[in-house]
Each structure stands twice: as structure tokens, then as C-alpha cells.
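pls design
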């Protein structure tokens, strides 16, 4: 899997650290409830956004998400799927196989997946709210793609950055990725030092005092 320098740096962090960096910068992006739907690996990539919605008639239509998969030409994509209906699938094993062929890195669903064993069998990461057996056919359709979508309360744009691991999913606005990475790497170094300090016997109350965390953001508050 080829990584760009920015994605390589993002992959070296975890969602906790990226969430903290967003907090320090006053940016949205961290979510709650979008967790791995099988014991899948962490994913990082650029968002390909998809908006779903309820189907209003019974006319045949192209299966949701399939046109987006067909259009992918790079190996940095994560499908970010919004508008899932409660208890209704918006992902399955045929889509997982197609996405694997196109070297898509994974899917983040604000909804549910069916056939989760099929995704697991091909090693395709799926993050979402839960699993179901109820098909999307004649219930949910694709409304748009490449647009701004709302996922777990966060607005995600096409090409925003995505990181997802066992703690959940975080989106980073593309315009702020450099600042988030710089601060995230600083936080990671500081927290590694804190772990080393408590292992060496220092008081955890001292090591984890609020002033220690405030020191991380001090450069942000200095006049440029």
C-alpha cells in the first residue's frame, strides 16, 4: 500500500492523539460510535464521500455506492458513507470485494453493514454503528457523492483526511492537516515522555497535572 508523506505521518498516530490535536486547535472531527465492525486494522486515507437516503419508489436503480467504487483510480481512498437508516444495511460483501479490487482502504459508515464475515474474509476494514442482516435494496439509495456529508455530527468534505482504529473514527479537514499533524506529533512525544516518567516512579498526579498538558498548546498561544 503506497502512502503519501502526509498519510504516512497520520498513520503513525492514533485517533486519541489526533482527537487531542483537534481539541487544542478548536476544530471538529472526532466522532463517537463509529468503531470497527470486525477485528480489522487501522485505516488512514482521503475521504470519498457518499450521501444515502430513503428510496421513495420501487423503480430499479443502480445499487448504492457501486458507482463511486467504479470511479476510484487511486489507492488512497476511504469511503465515508452518510445517511444510513437505523437497522438497514448500507454495505455488504459484494461491495467489499469490489472495493478490495479497486484498492480502497476501507469504509466508514454512519449506519450498519450486513455480511460482515464477507468483508472480514477479504480483509476489508469496515467501521460503523453496527451489523444487521436487513438489505438496503428498495429501502435506501445513493443520493449524491463527492459532496459535503454529515457523519456522526461532523461535516466531512471530499478529500478530507480519515483515521480510524479500535477507539473510533476521526476526520481531519484537509485545510488543517499540516497543523494537526505537527501538533499531533508533539502530543505523541509529550505523552511518551509522561509514560516513561511514571514507569520510572514519578508521581502520576504530578506528571498528569493540567499544566503539563497546557504546555503542549503553549506555542499556539504565542503571537506570531
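designed seq:
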Amino acid at each position: 500500500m503506497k502512502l503519501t508523506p502526509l498519510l504516512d505521518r497520520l498513520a503513525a498516530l492514533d485517533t486519541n492523539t489526533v482527537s487531542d490535536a483537534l481539541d487544542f486547535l478548536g476544530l471538529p472531527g472526532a466522532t463517537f460510535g463509529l468503531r470497527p465492525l470486525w477485528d480489522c486494522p487501522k485505516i488512514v486515507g482521503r475521504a470519498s464521500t457518499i450521501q444515502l437516503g430513503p428510496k421513495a419508489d420501487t423503480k430499479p436503480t443502480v445499487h448504492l455506492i457501486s458507482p463511486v467504487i467504479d470511479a476510484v483510480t487511486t489507492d488512497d481512498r476511504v469511503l465515508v458513507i452518510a445517511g444510513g437508516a437505523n437497522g438497514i444495511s448500507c454495505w455488504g460483501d459484494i461491495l467489499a470485494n469490489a472495493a478490495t479490487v479497486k484498492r480502497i482502504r476501507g469504509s466508514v459508515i454512519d449506519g450498519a453493514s450486513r455480511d460482515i464475515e464477507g468483508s472480514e474474509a477479504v480483509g476489508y476494514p469496515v467501521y460503523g454503528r453496527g451489523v444487521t442482516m436487513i438489505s438496503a435494496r428498495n429501502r435506501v439509495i445513493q443520493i449524491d457523492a463527492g459532496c459535503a456529508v454529515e457523519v456522526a455530527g461532523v461535516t466531512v468534505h471530499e478529500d478530507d483526511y480519515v483515521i480510524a482504529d479500535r477507539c473510533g473514527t476521526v476526520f481531519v479537514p484537509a485545510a488543517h492537516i499540516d497543523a494537526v499533524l505537527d501538533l499531533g506529533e508533539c502530543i505523541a512525544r509529550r505523552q511518551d515522555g509522561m509514560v516513561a516518567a511514571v514507569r520510572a516512579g514519578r508521581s502520576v498526579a504530578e506528571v498528569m497535572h493540567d499544566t503539563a498538558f497546557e504546555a503542549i498548546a503553549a506555542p499556539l498561544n504565542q503571537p506570531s
